[in-house]
Predict the 3D structure of the following.
Amino acid sequence: MDGLLSISGKKMIRNSNFINLVFAGVLLIAPWAVTATEKVTIQLKWSPQAQFAGYYVAQAKGYYKDAGLDVTIKPGGADIKTVQVIASNGADVIVNWLPGALAAREEGIPLVNIAQIFNKSGLMLTCKRSNGVNSPKDFKGKTMGVWLGGNEHPFLNWMAKLGYKPDTDIKILKQGHDLDLLTKNQADCISTMIYKEYWELIDAGLKESDLINFSYDKEGVGSLEDGLYVLESKLKDPAFVSKMGKFLKASMKGWSDAVKDPDGTAKIMVAADRSGHTSEKIQKRAMENVATLITNAGTPKMGYLEPKDFERTVKILISNQATPFIKKDPGTSAYTYVVWEAASK
C-alpha cells in the first residue's frame, strides 16, 4: 500500500508540476492575448481613390493591425463635410486642406494639423490651346472656371500678381465637379488636380497636346492640401496623442509603399472602391501623379509641416483685403509636431 501511495504521489507531483507550467505559460501569453485594440476613425474628403492610397494600403497590408489599431476609413463625398463629421465626434482625424481647416478654426471648430502628407500642391489651371492660351500673358479677356470654398484664393492671389482684375480683365465662373465648362467651351480654362480632373479630360477625348497646364505650386501660389487634422482639445490627452502617433506611423508606412508600388496600390484602390467606376489603369496613373506631391515619402521628413509652406498659405488666404478667406493669422496654434514626433520614434 505504501508503495502504491508513493507511486501515486509521484504521479500527482508530476501532474501538479505540469499544470503549474501550463498555468505559467498562460500568464505569459495572456497579456498579449487580452490587449485591446485601439479604435481610430479617419474621415476622407472624397471617395476611395489614389489621393488617399496610403491609408488603404496600410489597412490592406495589416500595418494598422500590427500597431494594435482597429482603423475605420470613412469615404467622403460631395454631401459630406469633414469638419462637421469631426466636430460631432464622428471621426478622430480627418483629411482636409489647410484653407478649410483655418476657416473652421475661425468659426469655432479648432482643428489642428498633426501631419502634412502632401508637401506639394496638385492644383492646376488647365486651358485649351485652341482658345488662344499658351502662357499667363494670354489670360486677359478669358473666362476661367474656378472652384470656390477657399480654393479660389490661390487663383485670385495669382491673378493679382499678374495684374489681372476679376470681372474687368478676366471672367470667373463657379466650377462644379464636372468638366463641362471646358469640354463644352463655356470657359477657356478650368481648375483641375494633377491626379484626377486633368486625366479625366484626356479620357473624355482631349489630347495632351490640346491642353496646357499651369501648376499653382510652380507659380508660387500653391496652398497646403491633404493634411491630417484633429480637434485641439483631444491633444490634451496623452493617450490620444500616443494612439495618433501609432496611426500616423502606420499610415506613413502605407504611403511610402503606395509611392513605391503604383501597380500594387492600384489593385488595392480598385478593391476599396465599391462603385465599380474605376480601374487599375486609372488608379495607377493617379498614384503616379500623387507620388509627385509627396516628395519626402520614405524619408524622416515625411509628414512634417514646413512652417514656410504654412505661412505662404496663410498669406494667400488673407491677402485679398476686400474678401479675405480668413481674418487673421492663427500662428503656430494651428499645427503641432507632438503626434509627428511620437510617430518618428
The domain at 38-120+224-343 is CATH 3.40.190.10 (D-Maltodextrin-Binding Protein; domain 2).
